[in-house]
Amino acid sequence: MMSLMSASAIASPNIAFIKYWGNRDDQLRLPSNGSISMNLDGLFTQTTVTFNPDLEKDTLILNDQVADQQATSRVSHFLDLVRKLADVNLKAHVYSKNNFPIGAGIASSASAFAALSLAATAALGLELSEAELSRLARRGSGSACRSVPGGYVEWLAGQSDADSYAVSIASPDHWALVDCIAIVQVEHKPIGSSQGHLLANTSPLQHARVEDSPRRIRLCREAILRRDFEAFANITELDSTLMHAVMMTSDPPLFYWSPVTLEIMTTVTRWRREKALPVCYTVDAGPNVHVICEESSSEIIREKLLQIPGVLHVLSAKPAGPARLCQT
Amino acid sequence: MMSLMSASAIASPNIAFIKYWGNRDDQLRLPSNGSISMNLDGLFTQTTVTFNPDLEKDTLILNDQVADQQATSRVSHFLDLVRKLADVNLKAHVYSKNNFPIGAGIASSASAFAALSLAATAALGLELSEAELSRLARRGSGSACRSVPGGYVEWLAGQSDADSYAVSIASPDHWALVDCIAIVQVEHKPIGSSQGHLLANTSPLQHARVEDSPRRIRLCREAILRRDFEAFANITELDSTLMHAVMMTSDPPLFYWSPVTLEIMTTVTRWRREKALPVCYTVDAGPNVHVICEESSSEIIREKLLQIPGVLHVLSAKPAGPARLCQT
């Protein structure tokens, strides 16, 4: 019986080209706007969930350490959703590990909740469709819904819990892009994304950013489908800056860019404009810069990035597949 | 006769706390939103205009050099407005000199067209009211209308040429603020303000920025009138970032911030938040940072700014009076 109530899954983090920032419903994590991302290959969270009648409470081991109360509580609340779906009342032991370091500029909550969704539902014998799994993952962390399908992914904002989930718009091998993540700083970010989302509507610019988002979604989706790097670069950089414009004008203001972040951004744009290199930037809620390029240029971009003062190292990732079950 | 047709005037540049960016009418320089500024004492343009029946065309000597065709043409077109007002058809010799260096991070067009407006009208015997003079200066360079009245100034956006002009909202001695201008770079800016204004409406954020501007104008005016530094600082920094948000998301994007600009901005905010220093920043269409503080703290702020790597030097200016006639 025990073996049937345990399952393991792995999922990759993702980098958004059209960003998620702000919710129309914070409780359900219904986003203010749709988003588009790429899963990142070679980076993953592996999570094993074991439901056990002998447990009195949920436990979480995160990266080989007993997790703190806040993280455990977030996972436990998420497991309540899974227990409700399966109509069981068993506590679980969750073992979760990332193969990328904390503070590497990659949010782990997306891959973590995508892997947790798949492992927990499988452990209880639930067989969810990809859309159902994506909806579920969204409840743990908004962007986790995008780590459920594979390759290039669009999160359909939707109107309700039922229709807010992510779908694949192109497979990993559709377009050989590489995310060269320029790590500039290994510090905790000043404010976490979950808190940051709550501030989005305090910016006088958020409404305009959201209102314009269907246009950006369309331009980005079409650029990916046509493999049009120039169009992709322009809309990706614009969307990144729009998100940071909202962040920097919220109350209190959130400045995630460091001076080195800005230096990399303007340098990357110059490489594209002046040297015709297929490269552009996007920046998440932290100072590291995701430098997106075509695979044919990824080695030269990596070397050039390492020459910029303040760049500590560069992690590279190609498009990854969907969340999947695996052996423990 | 000759002596009656010559006049000299001086005017100070100004620093905007609520920024002017984008026009509702580019030809008439009717701004998309109202703005608030402070004239900068100790810095000025001095301009002498001499109308002369013997001249075949307008000539311009700018900072002791014969000006290029572009600058001469801009001045000549402006003088056409003055000639029309006075109903004369005489060409003029214009001698104009700034006491602050080009590339010092201070736009000279505001003080230049304010001084030119006053000198040219006086030379032709016109006696314009302050509002009429401000309207006229606006036609040469939008922000020049704010260098006509003294002290703390509000540019009433207006609906037409007739009601778009600046008025003083507080005298120079109302509040002892100091603008400590941190000069980080002596380079020409990538794109001039006149061209930049034309791009404002290509940003998805400009409409929201403009729509929210009456609120910011009110908050800034009230903070100045009450001498409430904390309220003044918050709205001034927000407004600066809103303008740069529009610039950075226009098509093509305009990035005026350099890495050092960003470093100074975040450092200044930290001084206020963590050390309770009465200091805030505002940034115009260039990389230099206008660090605004109360006079009692200006010496310590100046010294602290000079310790930031990348700050070349610091210029300081108190509130200045209006444009005025002077001896040649």
CATH topology name of the largest domain in chain A? Ribosomal Protein S5, domain 2
Protein chain pair with the most extensive contact, residues per chain = A-B, 26 and 26 residues
- Taken as a percent bin, the fraction of beta residues of chain A is 15-25%
Count of helix runs of chain A: 9
User: What is the second-level CATH architecture of the largest domain in chain A?
Assistant: 2-Layer Sandwich
Mean pLDDT of chain A: 95
Write the H/E string of chain A, N to C. EEEEEEEEHEHHEEEHHHHHEEHEE
Determine the fraction of residues in helical runs of chain A and give it as a percent range. Answer: 25-40%
What is the subunit arrangement here? Answer: homodimer
Query: What is the highest CATH level, the class of the largest domain in chain A?
Result: Alpha Beta
Question: Could you tell me how far the N terminus lies from the C terminus of chain A, measured between alpha carbons in angstroms?
Answer: 17 Å
Biggest β-sheet: strands ordered side by side in the sheet of chain A: 8-7-9-6-1-16
What low-confidence regions of chain A span 5 or more consecutive residues with pLDDT below 50?
A: none
Indicate the structural class of chain A.
alpha+beta
What Rg of chain A do the Cα atoms give? Answer: 19 Å
